[in-house]
Amino acid sequence: MNSAAKSTTATSSVLDVLRANAERHPDKLLYAFLDKHGRTTESYTYESLLRRTEEIASHLYATHRLESGQRVILVYPPGLEMICALFACVRLGVIPVPVYPPASHGFAAALYKMDFIAKDCAAAAALTDRSYLWSLKLHRARRSLSSLATERSYTARLPWISTDTAKGDAGVAPPAAHSEILFLQYTSGSTNDPKGVMVTHRNVISNCDAVVDHDPVTVSWLPQYHDMGLIAFYFFMALKGGSNYGASPLDFIQRPVLWFEAISRYRATASAAPNFA
User: Among 53, 118, 59, which residue's Cα sits nearest to residue 90?
Assistant: First the structure.
């Protein structure tokens, strides 16, 4: 077993392991995201991901004073900005809560679930990107949601922060902070109201050591807000010094061969998907 795949169980923070891997191979690809034709639309090395994480964390601390232990919902379309924002939350000791981003199909039901989750975890803010925030506002307007429903909506009263505009704030370095809880994972809410589970740093680190025994190269189109996609293909890669090539679930549905093409092109050593795939 090489140094990147050695046990990390004794480490208390996912971010500490990521930093150690970045010191060993700063220029190695950590994450890439592909369009439906397999072309790379965005990517981060270990070093550049840490740099972007720090930029977002500095912006959140300087402009919104998010504090350790507060919860924030992450409402992003598929892509790497959510992953950067998630690690920025970890850097601040803020607890991220990934949620499904309501889209045109099933908008009202998805909006209800998002609102339920935000209220249940007492979210202090919602993180997103500019394009999705405009899309959300447009869908609300098109459906002529009543002003009374909007007033009662928990998420409508939250500050919505577009992290893709964050460039860091010179001279504002967030203090060191840590939360034992890495993130909150909510169930889909398909048969009942969503229920949350506290996932700790130790949970993910221990599970990674039990499951991954090599430097992985992975391909995944699984949703990033879901535990299987998030943990196996984003957290595990950062912990084991691997690389992940991600794609949108919608692009996979439109062009399923994308999955196999990417596995072949990048010589992936691991992938996963539900049976229907």
Answer: 53
What are the backbone angles phi and psi of residue 136, rounded to the nearest 5°? -60, -45
Other Cβ atoms within 10 Å of 189 Cβ, number = 17
Residue 5: what pLDDT? 45
**Beta-carbon contacts of residue 174 (< 8 Å; ≥ 6 apart):** 57, 58, 60, 61, 91, 92
Q: What's the pLDDT tens digit per position in 106-141?
A: 888 899 999 999 999 999 999 999 999 988 888 777
DSSP 40-56: EEEEEEHHHHHHHHHHH
Give dist(CA 18, CA 118) in Å, integer.
28
For 177, the token pair is: 């902070």
pLDDT recorded at residue 3: 42
Give the C-alpha distances (Å, rounded to integers) separating 114 from 142, 147, 183, 249. Answer: 19, 18, 16, 19
String of DSSP letters for 227-242:
HHHHIIIIIHHHHHT-
* φ and ψ at residue 242, rounded to 5 degrees: -95, -165
Please tell me the distance from the alpha carbon of residue 36 to that of residue 54, in angstroms, as a whole number. Answer: 30
Considering the domain 3-265 in this protein, what is its CATH number? 3.40.50.12780
The beta strand positions in the chain, using DSSP E, are: 29-34, 40-45, 71-74, 95-98, 125-128, 160-162, 181-186, 196-200, 217-220, 243-247
Question: Looking at residues 34-47, what average pLDDT do you find?
Answer: 97
Tell me what the mean pLDDT of segment 22-39 comes to: 97
